[in-house]
């Protein structure tokens, strides 16, 4: 009931704010329109719409609609452009106080980077939008694990079987499973607060890769709508509104890999002029035994249903439901000495009983309403049911020489949330102020437990109890064109957290309790468009990541919401028509680098940290058919309060790079040769143990026609021996008298070939 009360109050406040914000709009006009594919009539989202010889511009929404407000009366040339689409324009006359409409139909064409412009007028903080839009068309995505690495500069590592969330490296962070990178899909939060395994745990495997349509990337803590975990940045994924075609896909590969996918449109495209609606369902089943000596027996099922439609000329509704379930066995991390002395092979296991299961059910609805005075109210409610069960053994026989150090972590969670935004363009003289006010809340009701186990049999309980954690947030953001070229974006965000934990067992008062904490995060960004091919930016902002509720309520001195301060300068530019570059020099300071170690039920605090870095992304069209891309990310991270020589941030990467060559031929032939690289880096504070870097090559080949596609992919083309997750860990094997501290690792994928075939209908 509290959640529904908050939703009612939030919606009322947003509308009241909009009514109170009414400004003079005399002698101005509104231009509305739609963009669709000329062949099928399918609405096109994400298409850029501009007025020729003017600064006004926008982007089509998920139903292909767009709107430009505050226009002086007159005649305009409206031009729509999109990657892989031929530009189209139309002349329209608008009268003062009136609304004019226009419909634009764009045919498909070959991808040409010369058509790209770099500014993002509706969302200037999305400075990587051009790069992401190019990647969406060029970079191959073969599995859910390929989705997060679409974020430029982000590298992942798996270390407990295919069903567990990946370890994330981004902007000089070992962000664990998501502690410093905010991930969402269709407005649903992916990061889990106070998770049984780690703070910010972001398991993205419930997403079917073929349904993903767009990715919006935001580096640093500069954007107001992101709060918790958005210190290094955030990635917003959206699924398709409508499928281009229904599809059935089969995939087979080495290590007993089998995958089947079906995506089916449920509604036909409606004629122009009618209210648009789209619906589809998608399903995915995956099985693999993986490359370890002990079969992984990995099984995953994903299901999705989505509806998007216009309820009226001024409102639209999106409803989505999804179901995910997965189970697997895992080989876990292994010690180097175990391989060196022949105890196990490189793909062996010390404790082959590791593994687990997880499931997630999502439901969300988004109602978008056009209000008077050219305002838009967007309201979203969501619910997630989540279950997690993981068996691990990281130290083997260090603490229990008889039974071993196996643990079982469980998380049974109900997650409820509401997000509302009221956006409106206001006229300040001849300038337009774009304003957004947001209110939201999120409630996590979770039962979590950490238990000792042996061969998946529970021996005793370390900690077990219920977490109630609720976040209330609000923000106000304004974007103002100070001149035709200079844009100011400023925002203020406020968050308040309520934490509660109640231990299940008797005499648990010392580990139960309640706490609350607030945080205010200002943002200030400047963008200067030198011309349509060059944009400069200066950005700054405060952010934070939250601590685990169990640590907060049991330690009065705990740093609850350690602050992050970030700033950067950079540019998105085109030195030649066929080359797009995004470059940024950045710094990020953390008040306290916290990691909740769910394996031990404790919080590790590294104290203050400082990172400096440089990001470079380039996309180049070498010929009409051949494209090259590269992401290069340099960083230097240090512990501020530790002496030189003992101030390394463990596992923080200093160099990551991905890139490749992609061929797109009109005949339907497509090919891509790609590399992945991460440098060797310190695994502990004094750099006495190093995590080893790697350089890998992957390849993808496909042939696509109107009714079918066949393809092949190879990971680790050169069959390099490499390590995924790596840690400096103190362990003891069964036959050892004393513990040993050394590098432990999960071996990376060897040469791994897969074939796939799809039918379209």
Automatic annotation (TrEMBL):
<dbReference type="Pfam" id="PF07715">
    <property type="entry name" value="Plug"/>
</dbReference>
<dbReference type="InterPro" id="IPR036942">
    <property type="entry name" value="Beta-barrel_TonB_sf"/>
</dbReference>
<dbReference type="InterPro" id="IPR000531">
    <property type="entry name" value="Beta-barrel_TonB"/>
</dbReference>
<dbReference type="Pfam" id="PF00593">
    <property type="entry name" value="TonB_dep_Rec_b-barrel"/>
</dbReference>
<dbReference type="InterPro" id="IPR013784">
    <property type="entry name" value="Carb-bd-like_fold"/>
</dbReference>
<keyword id="KW-0406">Ion transport</keyword>
<comment type="similarity">
    <text>Belongs to the TonB-dependent receptor family.</text>
</comment>
<feature type="domain" description="TonB-dependent receptor-like beta-barrel">
    <location>
        <begin position="328"/>
        <end position="717"/>
    </location>
</feature>
<keyword id="KW-0408">Iron</keyword>
<keyword id="KW-0998">Cell outer membrane</keyword>
<feature type="domain" description="TonB-dependent receptor plug">
    <location>
        <begin position="122"/>
        <end position="234"/>
    </location>
</feature>
<keyword id="KW-0410">Iron transport</keyword>
<protein>
    <submittedName>
        <fullName>TonB-dependent receptor</fullName>
    </submittedName>
</protein>
<keyword id="KW-0813">Transport</keyword>
<dbReference type="InterPro" id="IPR012910">
    <property type="entry name" value="Plug_dom"/>
</dbReference>
<keyword id="KW-0472">Membrane</keyword>
<dbReference type="InterPro" id="IPR037066">
    <property type="entry name" value="Plug_dom_sf"/>
</dbReference>
<keyword id="KW-0798">TonB box</keyword>
<dbReference type="Pfam" id="PF13620">
    <property type="entry name" value="CarboxypepD_reg"/>
</dbReference>
<keyword id="KW-0675">Receptor</keyword>
<keyword id="KW-0812">Transmembrane</keyword>
<keyword id="KW-1134">Transmembrane beta strand</keyword>
<dbReference type="InterPro" id="IPR039426">
    <property type="entry name" value="TonB-dep_rcpt-like"/>
</dbReference>
